[in-house]
Amino acid sequence: MAPRKNFRNQAKKEVKPAAVVNKNGVKVEASVAASGGGFSGTKIFTWFMVLALLGVWSSVAVVWFDLVDYDNVIERAKEFRFNFSEVLQGKLSAYDADGDGDFDVEDAKVLLGLKERPVSVLLREAKEESAVKEPDAVPPPDDDAAVPLPPISDDFIPDDSRDEATHPYEDENNAIDMKGELVEKAQPQQTLEESKQYKNQPGSPETKETEAESVPEPEADVEPEVESVPELEAEFVPELKENAEDQPKDKLKEKAKKKKPKLLNKFEKTIKTEIDAAEKLRKKGKVEEAVRAFETLVLQYPQSPRCRYGKALAEDGLAEKMLSNDMLQKAIGTYKEASELPNATPDLIKATLKKRAERQQFLGRMRGALATLEKLVQIFPEDMALKNDLGVAHLLIGDNNSAKRVYEEVLATAPSDGFAKVHYGFILKSENKIAESIPFLRDGLESGDPGTDDGRFYFHLGDALQRMGDDSAYKWYERGHQRGHFASVWQRSLYNVDGLKAQPWWTPKDTGYMDLVKTLERNWRIIRDEAQSVMDKTTGLFVPEEENLREKGEWGQFTLWQQGKKAGESCRSVPKTCGLLERYPEATGCKRGQIKFSVMQPGTHVWPHTGPTNCRLRMHLGLVIPKTGCKIRCTNDTRAWEEGKVLIFDDSFEHEVWQDADSYRLIFIVDVWHPELTQYQRQTLSPI
Question: Which ranges carry the Aspartyl/asparaginy/proline hydroxylase domain (predicted)?
Fold first, then answer.
């Protein structure tokens, strides 16, 4: 094969130049010699032409044989050009946090948390988000639709400057019990029921405590259904979910026909989108942003009741988040402002004032709540539910007579109102009108009306029947147990921690408090002598007290510790006894119990009853025990006291006492924490 250069030279039809001799005597071609030994311009041109021809023939081959998908190449080029132009035209605008259309230093401050986002941006985003429908989302309801929300978790301790009642539990049964937590779950943190301390009211089984249940709030984009919200009755009577099977058909139909509340006036319908945007922030839990958004709306529309109501709800939510009573007080004021603005719809006035009264009660402002409810009843005199709430407000301040008058008015207008019936029966029983109370309590429970399904009503109906000698009491106790109000037919305490060991009688070893029991039994004579030294020499009684547990006879007590607090004046009278107990925090620190002397005179009978909580056990140390005639029954097991010996039982189970001896019986009662309660629970459970 001929050399390649010859082929190239032949193609160009060049003449081979003559050889020349260089200065070293070596022959070289003339072209090389002329170029100093490198490529000449002609050769460079030659190479260029060869490459060009190769490129042309390659292109022809690519096109002819369809080796490249030009359509795909063109599309990719377009896509690249589009994406690149996006960057050039402001792709960083996604990080525009202050709404000025670009990304700059101010945006960085917002993203780093050094500056708050403008309200206008928040409202705009909320509007845009609410305008976008998810593919499978349910369409938003119309202006007047109502979807009640879950209750607010009001888990902060309310202020109440008033002193808690500290008198012993036995005499607390002559009035209405205003406490209502049904079950206290064993949880690692303090529960709402444990933190809410309203004004103590005497009454139901030996205790005083009120459970507050929050009022449902409006969804974003919709308004609350005022008629269906059992707000204030829940302050007194915590309500369980209603079972539709237990409701008469006509009652269910009546509920279905309830009108939706109208919270927007004519003007506010024109700004509904803005209200909904702010409300959406609140519903998402962005309460700080919601407060700012509603504040902006109030500035823009100062005469809008709905905007101000939204501001109050947002402040309410912020108070919960901050655990701030001051913020809640601000919300209470804003509720009032909203209700007093002109052009507020009747439904908004009702919802606003009911919410205000409920929050006042939460803070312990019972008389303020009463005034708010009285105003509501004046505005809506035909609304029986509001009158029922007013009756509860009277009960919360201990004004049973006024409450009784209110419920008599309700029953005169609506004789089948179950809520009014159970409360009216409750009041009659507190007046010791046992027989008269039974039909009201029974009919009210059988009505199934909201607010009637409460353990205290089952408790008091059964108790009233027992006192009348009617064995159907246990039918109602069983029904209360089936409804989840009682742990069993025998164990009917209402303020419980789930999961604690439950048995009527305990041994010292069972409790783990052996040292305390030994101290009491070793020193029983010292304790007896001090007890006798403070007894009234004339009557043979301690401080007289009125109770509602005795069928007959005399029963008195002398208290040393109540709700975990030492009664200093009493302990000064019996210093040795108090000194013995100081080193036993399971007793002196038991906030759900007492330490006291108890004396019972001959001829006394104590009705079957139960204590208020399963969180304690009760020790009885016999001090002066007649040889015969004194006994105590717990469930179906009856026992007798012995001098110098300790009996231990769980008084959340039904128990009954007889004193048929010919002289007084004197015992020392020491309540202790249930041994299975954790230290944290002992510290955080509310007093009883």
Answer: 521-675
